[in-house]
Amino acid sequence: MATSDPRRTLIVANLTASTPSLLQEVERRADEAPTTFSLLIPSADSKKTSDWTLQTATSLLGKAAGAPVEGRVAGADAFESVKQALSEGSYDEVIISTLPRRASEWLRKDLPTRVEQLGVAVTVITPPDEPSSLKAFTDSFSAKAPPTAGP
Q1: For a Cys staple, 17 with which of 24, 57, 127, 151, CB 3.0–4.6 Å?
Q2: In a domain? residue 110
């Protein structure tokens, strides 16, 4: 790859596609070197939710990157979705943005290691595991989420 060519980074995210941790990392990488970013959202529960997530996330990621970010919704199997995206595009690295370990299906299934075995550098970004509105929101989607108390 010529030094004038931008790095190509595939961002794999779902519920964490527009978290401050990911946005800060995208901004840092864009400031560090010319980089193009693409967002892949696997495991989308519903078309309506994924459209909202995709539109919102690509807009916020684009602001952080200083350039438009392309995005697409993929199938339910995160590894197969990443594998397909890597075979269709020429990416230098993958950022996997996921929930903290206790709630992350992708970490339980060792997605980062499996993606690294495809021959691409992988960085994992997780939001802080602390009480927040994001935590309450993502917990509501987690199979391991504690039951919520009713009124």
Answers
A1: 57
A2: yes
